[in-house]
Design goal:
Distance between the termini: 50 Å
Strand content: 5-15%
CATH topology: Cytochrome p450
Number of helices: 19
Number of strands: 10
Order of helices and strands: HHEEHEHHHHEHHHHHHHHHEEEEHHHEE
Largest sheet: 3 strands, mixed
Cofactor: heme
InterPro entries: Cyt_P450, Cyt_P450_CS, Cyt_P450_E_grp-I, Cyt_P450_sf
Helix content: 40-55%
Pfam families: p450
Oligomer: single chain
Family: Belongs to the cytochrome P450 family.
Structural class: mainly alpha
GO molecular function: heme binding; iron ion binding; monooxygenase activity; oxidoreductase activity, acting on paired donors, with incorporation or reduction of molecular oxygen
Bound molecules: protoporphyrin IX containing FE
Length: about 525
């Protein structure tokens, strides 16, 4: 945190922030009787707790709960933050007062990346968000549409299996493999099976596009001083706004021609070129929705791009990271890996390939995935919430506009909630009927809860299960000689493994044709 721009900005911030802080303190103390803020660590004048933040925020926030209790506060610059670390506090926010806490706290980079919060994830709670989310969940991710683009997912996953088969006996970087697979699956679901071909038509390089998607995630994860001191935002001390502007320009140059071509195809009514239902991609669904008047929202080019950002940036990194964590946990516990593979043998068979129709019967793999997301929630603090009015939580006042973190990481590893919480035990999910992803059980929140629960959940679950089942059914995996699995975490918005996981595949199926 203590980088050069910080030094520069401290001086400038001093004067401006003193005024803000004085007003805030006056407001709080002059209402002492009504306000009872949670306890919390003291910070420094002006900057608050900012200089003490460590890169792995969820670890630090979990440690602080041991000192200050399940609800505590701290200041980051002029911003009051409150952290909730227990299931009962979570319930008060995402069940009892969900509509009050349904607003987001978007960062400057996040807002820019989503064309000013025109997406689903960062748009403020209200009718626009409701219509966009409805369109996404009911129209794009309806069972019918997910079914309709199954052949696209299948095609890309089979390509990955063929690719891994060429690497048999050699170490494979699992995150890279998961990245290529997910990116191919996602881009083909969005743009159709010949995404690369379509891009080439418009002289766009596929690698450049993938690098751009990665860079979006990196820039969005950078701590931005302008987020803590909004008055300083126009100075853009760290150059994050500038970086984001350049990336958006590049993204526009890639997406605009692809979308415009589809719009033109539709308006020309060149039926022959428009894919039929059995292979409908998201672009086609979106441009068709643009023409419809009864969907509650008037879609345009920019809104379509904002939705695509949610899918490409929000959807891929979380999924890839989860695939890597599952493989790491399985390589670390060979007896659990053996059980997963036995199940695949029983359900799919060794003379067959995995189809999505097998997934509902893979109960043990499902439990492995759930247990992985318990120990390694990719967004451990979910998306911070912003109450639209002052609220009482745990007997304390949370003023309007506070940045509220719901610490799913702490809850999912809490010894008062989970037996042997640090052990990887998928069995705990096998016999429980109420530990689903739907966010109804406050002990388990990897996709969040309430009205702003992950909108991509049906697709995420399908893609994760399909990719994992295919990799584990087709190959045996082992670590390179002398290597152990390192389960430590890296830093970022999405919590990845610190060390890349390398694993060596060996064919598991006797029939060579199943790899073709
Ligand atoms: C392992 C995979 C994934 C995980 C763990 C995950 C997790 C999450 C979490 C924790 C949230 C915030 C919920 C909250 O604040 O209560 C969220 C929001 C969201 N996710 Fe996911 N996600 C995943 C995959 C996806 C995919 C594949 C998509 C899109 C295709 C997606 C789209 C979204 C959207 C649009 C939101 C914002 C919802 C709203 O604000 O209404 N996610 N996700």
């Amino acid at each position: 945190m203590a980088s050069e721009p910080l030094n520069d900005f401290f001086l400038g911030a001093l004067t401006l922030s003193t005024a803000v802080l004085t007003i805030l303190l006056y407001k709080l103390t002059s209402h002492k009787k009504e306000f009872r803020l949670p306890p919390g660590p003291r910070g420094l004048p002006i900057v608050g707790f900012l200089p003490f933040l460590r890169p792995n925020l969820h670890h630090q926030l979990t440690e602080l709960s041991q000192q200050y209790g399940p609800i505590y506060k701290f200041w980051l610059g002029s911003r009051l933050c409150v952290v909730l670390n227990s299931p009962s506090l979570a319930k008060q926010v995402v069940c009892d007062q969900d509509s009050v806490f349904a607003n987001r706290y978007p960062t400057i980079a996040g807002l820019m990346a989503t064309y000013g919060g025109l997406d689903i994830g960062f748009s403020p709670y209200g009718s626009y968000w409701r219509d966009m989310r409805k369109l996404f969940v009911r129209e794009m991710l309806s069972s019918r549409n997910l079914e309709a683009c199954y052949s696209l997912r299948r095609h890309e996953v089979r390509k990955t299996i063929r690719n891994v088969h060429t690497k048999v006996g050699n170490p494979v970087d699992i995150a890279e493999l998961a990245f290529l697979t997910e990116m191919n699956v996602v881009t083909s679901m969005i743009f159709g099976s010949d995404f690369v071909g379509e891009m080439e038509k418009h002289r766009i390089d596929g690698t450049e596009f993938r690098d751009l998607v990665v860079s979006f995630g990196v820039v969005m994860a950078k701590p931005n001083i302008s987020d803590f001191f909004p008055m300083l935002a126009r100075f853009d001390f760290q150059g994050i706004r500038k970086e984001m502007e350049a990336m958006l320009k590049l993204l526009d140059s890639i997406l605009d021609p692809l979308i415009n071509q589809r719009v033109k195809m539709l308006s020309d009514k060149r039926e022959a070129e428009i894919q039929k239902n059995e292979k409908k991609d998201f672009m086609q669904i979106l441009v068709e929705l643009m023409e419809q008047k009864d969907i509650g929202i008037s879609l345009d080019l920019v809104k379509i791009k904002a939705i695509l950002v949610d899918i490409m940036i929000g959807g891929t990194d979380t999924t890839i990271t989860t695939v890597e964590w599952v493989m790491a946990e399985l390589l670390n516990t060979p007896q659990i890996m053996a059980k997963v593979q036995q199940e695949l043998k029983d359900v799919v068979g060794v003379n067959n390939i995995v189809e999505e129709s097998h997934l509902p019967n893979l109960h043990y793999l499902d439990a492995v995935l759930k247990e992985t997301l318990r120990l390694h929630p990719t967004l451990p603090l979910l998306f911070p919430k912003r109450p639209s009015q002052s609220a009482i939580v745990g007997g304390y006042t949370i003023p309007e506009g506070t940045k509220v973190f719901l610490n799913a990481y702490a809850i999912q590893r809490d010894p008062q909630v989970w037996e042997s919480p640090l052990e990887f035990q998928p069995e705990r999910f096998l016999n429980s009927t109420n530990l689903e992803y739907a966010g109804n059980n406050m002990n388990y929140l990897p996709f969040g809860s309430g009205r702003r629960i992950c909108a991509g959940l049906p697709l995420a679950e399908k893609m994760l299960m399909f990719v994992l089942a295919s990799l584990l059914h087709s190959f045996d995996w082992k670590l390179p000689e002398g290597e152990n699995v390192d389960l430590s975490e890296g830093f970022g918005l999405v919590i990845k493994k610190k060390e890349r996981l390398l694993a060596i595949p060996a064919p598991r199926l006797s029939n060579f044709e199943l790899y073709q």
